[in-house]
């Protein structure tokens, strides 16, 4: 059975190996399995749509010049990591107005209380509050519930999941390949889609999250208890896809360790487990094999090999990235084609929604 697959990344900073391992790697695996299927039977071809979600990025302030650059950078990175525009569609969210249109409609069926329970909002808003107050505490949630300095906590940040639900529901999406942190937003999407269907009639397909258990949550190299993230205040926490070799080596060398230098993945060794997962994802050698290989090895040798594996993995990605960025026409062609495809599909869904709700003439 053919499936519609939709996912996206915010162009709100530098894409890192957590984005690659948690999301893009899955996209490519799905693409490659559908490429195989295309050859055997057209009927089995998956529909793959990957979005650059710039409207999500502006839920916190983005410098306009930087944002414009990051949008193109993100698109070029999708391609250089291996997304094939002959099989998958790539487009920029803000170039299809149906996303914001459907967001408003979904807002009108979304219970306020349901949005209030989203953990990402609680985390992000409390981080903004702490920054505004100059507090460096890592106690994430405390401090929310308004303490004055809340100008940066926008309605858009609160409403973020409704925009994400619109992204997904517009395309009759079956599966959404993402990292663990997005699971709650996909459950939200299902709840809202189902509620709409019950109120007005069957319009939306309810999507499933696709989350790869072991790699769903890559942690910061500086704090194995916090997620590797674009907005980490410590620049050593994330290896970015476009970092140069020296920087990669430095970040790997400075990665924090657990007590004891045993090279083994175990619950009480979160830092080691995390770097072994990264090693496996970039080298294709399983964590088990790595544990065997480095059983009696010096920790410094292990780290050298890990750095080398990351550098080797990123070299072709970066080379392709440079080529793509030099060919503006090509990137524009891919994004135009993606946008036209997306609009053609989503506008039908919007029409259906308007009709069933009694909107317009
Ligand atoms: P974002 O960086 O928030 O735009 O996330 C884009 C995609 O990457 C989503 O599917 C996230 O779940 C995934 N992702 C982001 N950070 C990580 C991480 N540290 N580990 C695994 N997946 C991640
Ligand atoms: N909220 C997602 C994130 O931060 C990005 C996103 C927006 C997304 N719309 C989406 C992911 C639709 C999957 C499907 O990671």
Describe this structure in words.
With 361 residues, this protein is mostly helical. It folds into two domains: 4-211 and 328-357, 3-Layer(aba) Sandwich (Rossmann fold); 235-321, Tyrosyl-Transfer RNA Synthetase (Orthogonal Bundle). The chain is built from 13 helices and five strands. Strand 4 (175-177), helix 8 and strand 5 (208-210) form a beta-alpha-beta unit. Helix 9 (245-253) packs antiparallel against helix 12 (299-326). The chain is globular and about 75 Å long. The site of adenosine monophosphate has 18 residues, from helix 1.
- Give the uncertain stretches in residue-range form: 137-147
Q: What percent strand? A: 5-15%
Main beta sheet, described? Answer: 3 strands, parallel
Number of H/I helices: 13
Task: Give the SSE order as H and E letters.
Answer: EHEHHEHHHHEHEHHHHH
Small molecules in complex = adenosine monophosphate, tryptophan
Any idea what the shape is? globular
Write down the overall mean pLDDT.
Answer: 92
CATH topology of the largest domain: Rossmann fold
Q: Spatial order of the strands in the main sheet?
A: 1-2-3
Specify the CATH class of the largest domain. Alpha Beta
Number of strand segments: 5
Please give the share of residues in helix.
40-55%
List the topology elements.
Layout: E1 4-9, H1 17-40, E2 47-52, H2 54-57, H3 64-81, E3 88-92, H4 98-107, H5 112-116, H6 119-133, H7 155-169, E4 175-177, H8 183-200, E5 208-210, H9 245-253, H10 270-283, H11 287-293, H12 299-326, H13 328-357
Parallel strand pairs: 1-2, 2-3, 4-5
Helix pairs in contact: 3-12, 4-7, 4-13, 7-8, 9-12, 10-12
Bound molecules: adenosine monophosphate and tryptophan.
């Amino acid at each position: 059975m053919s499936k519609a697959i939709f996912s996206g990344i915010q162009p709100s900073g530098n894409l890192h190996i957590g984005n690659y391992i948690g999301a893009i790697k899955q996209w490519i695996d799905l693409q490659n399995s559908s490429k195989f299927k295309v050859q055997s039977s057209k009927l089995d071809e998956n529909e793959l749509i990957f979005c650059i979600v710039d409207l999500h990025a502006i839920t916190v302030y983005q410098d306009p010049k930087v944002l414009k650059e990051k949008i193109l950078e993100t698109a070029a990175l999708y391609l250089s990591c291996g997304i094939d525009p002959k099989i998958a569609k790539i487009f920029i969210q803000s170039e299809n107005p149906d996303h914001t249109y459907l967001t408003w409609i979904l807002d009108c069926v979304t219970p306020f209380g349901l949005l209030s329970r989203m953990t990402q909002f609680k985390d992000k808003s409390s981080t903004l509050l702490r920054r505004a107050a100059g507090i460096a505490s890592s106690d994430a949630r405390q401090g929310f519930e308004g303490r004055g300095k809340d100008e940066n906590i926008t309605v858009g940040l609160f409403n973020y999941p409704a925009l994400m639900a619109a992204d997904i529901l517009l395309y009759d999406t079956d599966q959404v390949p993402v990292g663990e942190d997005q699971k709650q937003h996909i459950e939200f999407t299902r709840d809202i889609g189902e509620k709409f269907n019950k109120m007005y009639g069957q319009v939306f397909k309810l999507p499933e999250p696709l989350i790869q258990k072991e790699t769903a949550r890559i942690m910061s190299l500086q704090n194995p208890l916090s997620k590797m993230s674009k907005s980490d205040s410590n620049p050593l926490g994330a290896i970015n896809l476009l970092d140069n070799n020296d920087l990669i080596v430095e970040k790997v060398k400075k990665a924090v360790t657990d007590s004891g230098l045993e090279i083994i993945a175990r619950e009480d060794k979160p830092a080691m487990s995390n770097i072994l997962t990264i090693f496996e994802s970039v080298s294709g050698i399983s964590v088990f094999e790595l544990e065997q290989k480095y059983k009696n090895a010096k920790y410094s040798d292990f780290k050298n090999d890990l750095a080398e594996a990351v550098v080797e993995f990123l070299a072709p990605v970066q080379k392709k990235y440079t080529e793509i960025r030099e060919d503006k026409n090509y990137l524009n062609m891919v994004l135009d084609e993606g946008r036209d495809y997306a609009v053609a599909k989503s506008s039908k869904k919007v029409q259906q929604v308007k009709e069933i709700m009694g909107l317009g003439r």
